[in-house]
């Protein structure tokens, strides 16, 4: 895995992305949804690793092999798609969406190192560097993505808010 510090930092970026998207899609009850998705994004950023640990047992061993089911790209993408669909309709959608953003961000952070990530079937690795190396690149890339998406969403969102205010005033 990328170092856990890197996963926290990228999870944070995932939380920002999720909150920005929820703010855009979420409609009326946006603020609690934003908060939920933000924290769920941070939790999701490390989830594929802590979901592997049998935290309920004293030994805390892994209950499944490292980087198998909990790092399965299809599963996280499905969660992302389903929760995105329900945004604005269900209160659970925002945290689920944030969690999925964080999980996918985790997979992207794990992807470049040699162990790879099982996106569909079988692991695939970008084979760029060893675990823990180049954390800075991974973190910087995640924040670049957060900035790009956030900026996009907010600038459009701002127009909409202005329009809403205009409609209300009129
Ligand atoms: Zn991992």
Break the fold down into its secondary structure elements and pairings.
Blueprint: H1 4-25, H2 30-50, H3 73-86, H4 93-110, H5 135-169
Helix pairs in contact: 1-2, 1-4, 1-5, 2-4, 3-4
The chain binds zinc ion.
The site of zinc ion has 7 residues, from helix 2 and helix 4.
Describe this structure in words.
The protein is mainly alpha-helical and 170 residues long. The chain has one domain (4-169). The chain has helices spanning 4-25, 30-50, 73-86, 93-110, 135-169. The model has no long low-confidence stretch (mean pLDDT 85). Zinc ion binds next to helix 2 and helix 4. Pfam families: YdjM. InterPro entries: YdjM-like. This is Metal-dependent hydrolase. The chain crosses the membrane at residues 33-57.
Please sum up the structure shown:
With 170 residues, this protein is mainly alpha-helical.
Observed structural traits:
transmembrane, membrane, transmembrane helix, hydrolase, globular, 170 residues, mainly alpha, hydrolase activity
The description of the largest β-sheet is: none
Q: How helical, in percent, are the residues?
A: 55-70%
Shape label: globular
Strand percent estimate: under 5%
If you compute it from the alpha carbons, what radius of gyration comes out, rounded to the nearest whole angstrom?
A: 17 Å
Keywords: Hydrolase, Membrane, Transmembrane, Transmembrane helix
Transmembrane segments: 33-57
InterPro entries: YdjM-like
Organism: Paraburkholderia panacisoli
